[in-house]
């Protein structure tokens, strides 16, 4: 199978008729000027060795070299062999808590910022697997379906925030149930759910949901962010003014991280709980090590052709033609010597 690696360089060939037209115009103007200056016999004495054919020869060599150079830069290639690559991995959903409690700044710069940064780091560690992103509060939204487009996954994570889901509160059981719907059929025992949350849960059904999901072949890992001490939840109003999330009575609401709930979910889901309190990279590596123990499934295979390049078959004659053009003198040296005194 033949192809050109860089076919855009063939546009250079359009310059050939332009260069030819410019040369003919220049040669005609030059001829007219010389005829006005002196007749041919006198001109041979005034400009000994002038050869009217050499400029044509040099220009022809240059014009012939350009197509070879264009083809060399386009790099003609022939398929050498076809390889089939099979990808193995698991389906991983990253569940990211975007409830108002994640706005708390008991960890710097905030729970939400720390969670987003860690989730993005985790994507880098899990390359090779299908990865999806679920955002949740009291309801859940599958923001990125399972994919290998990791740049898209990370862009979804970087934009995650409470403004994306209007209904507030946290329902971890709903998040687990919704995540189960995202996995592909036949991927049981080849799937994992990683919940990143402060652990606040207003429903209380999360551990039971995790146990049921684990019975269906899902491994659940939890990552806790935030401190157990009460903390306010700052927010920016539409007019730009800073305020806090407030209770029904009007006073600032407080939030407390609940690692015990996350520990219970991980235990029921067959996974492990991790506090997000130190190095995000090290924690992501530790989770990847756990995920790598899950039996991998074979994803779709892809076929690739390897190509051999043959640009040098065109580069070599181009260089030869240009060297000949360079070595040709602009005048006939032997004829010029006849007029030397």
Average pLDDT value? Answer: 85
Per DSSP, the total helix count is: 11
- Roughly what percent helix? 40-55%
CATH topology of the largest domain: Rossmann fold
Query: CATH homologous superfamily of the largest domain - what is it?
Result: von Willebrand factor, type A domain
Element pattern in H and E: EHHHEEHEEHHEHEEEEEHEHEHH
Query: Quick one: CATH class of the largest domain?
Result: Alpha Beta
Task: Please give the number of β-strands.
Answer: 13
What would you say the CATH architecture of the largest domain is?
3-Layer(aba) Sandwich
Return the domain count.
Answer: 2
Low-confidence stretches: none
Largest sheet: 6 strands, mixed
Physical arrangement of strands within the biggest beta sheet: 5-4-3-6-7-12
What is the structural class?
alpha/beta
Radius of gyration: 36 Å
Question: What share of the residues does DSSP label as strand, in percent?
Answer: 15-25%
- Kindly, what is the distance between the CA atoms of the first and last residues, rounded to a whole number of angstroms? 65 Å
Shape: elongated
Domain VWFA: 91-291
Organism: Neolewinella agarilytica
Transmembrane segments: 6-27, 59-78, 310-328
InterPro entries: Aerotolerance_reg_N (IPR024163), UPF0353/GerABKA_families (IPR050768), VWF_A (IPR002035), vWFA_dom_sf (IPR036465)
């Amino acid at each position: 199978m033949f192809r050109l690696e860089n076919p855009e360089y063939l546009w250079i060939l359009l310059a050939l008729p332009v260069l030819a037209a410019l040369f003919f115009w220049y040669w005609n103007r030059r001829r007219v000027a010389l005829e006005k200056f002196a007749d041919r016999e006198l001109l041979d004495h005034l400009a000994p060795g002038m050869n009217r054919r050499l400029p044509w020869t040099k220009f022809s060599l240059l014009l012939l070299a350009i197509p070879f150079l264009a083809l060399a830069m386009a790099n003609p290639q022939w398929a050498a062999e076809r390889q089939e690559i099979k990808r193995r991995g698991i389906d991983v959903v990253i569940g990211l808590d975007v409830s108002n409690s994640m706005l708390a700044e008991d960890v710097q710069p905030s729970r939400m910022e720390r969670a987003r940064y860690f989730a993005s780091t985790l994507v880098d560690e899990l390359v090779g697997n299908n990865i999806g992103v679920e955002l949740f509060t009291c309801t859940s939204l599958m923001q990125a379906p399972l994919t290998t487009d990791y740049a898209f996954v990370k862009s979804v994570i970087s934009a995650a925030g409470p403004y994306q889901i209007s209904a507030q509160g946290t329902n971890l059981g709903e998040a687990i149930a919704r995540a189960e719907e995202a996995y592909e059929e036949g991927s049981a025992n080849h799937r994992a759910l990683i919940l990143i949350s402060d652990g606040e849960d207003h429903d209380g059904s999360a551990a039971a949901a995790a146990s049921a999901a684990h019975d269906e072949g899902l491994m659940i890992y939890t990552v806790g962010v935030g401190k157990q001490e009460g903390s306010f939840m700052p927010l920016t109003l539409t007019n730009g003014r800073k305020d806090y999330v407030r209770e029904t009575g009007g006073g600032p609401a407080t939030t407390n991280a609940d690692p015990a709930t996350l520990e219970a979910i991980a235990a029921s889901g067959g996974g492990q709980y991790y506090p997000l309190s130190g190095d995000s990279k090290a924690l992501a590596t530790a989770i990847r090590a756990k995920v790598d123990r899950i039996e991998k499934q074979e994803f779709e295979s892809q076929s690739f052709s390897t190509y051999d390049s043959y640009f040098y078959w065109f580069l070599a004659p181009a260089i030869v033609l240009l060297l000949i053009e360079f070595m040709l003198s602009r005048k006939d040296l032997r004829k010029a010597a006849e007029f030397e005194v």
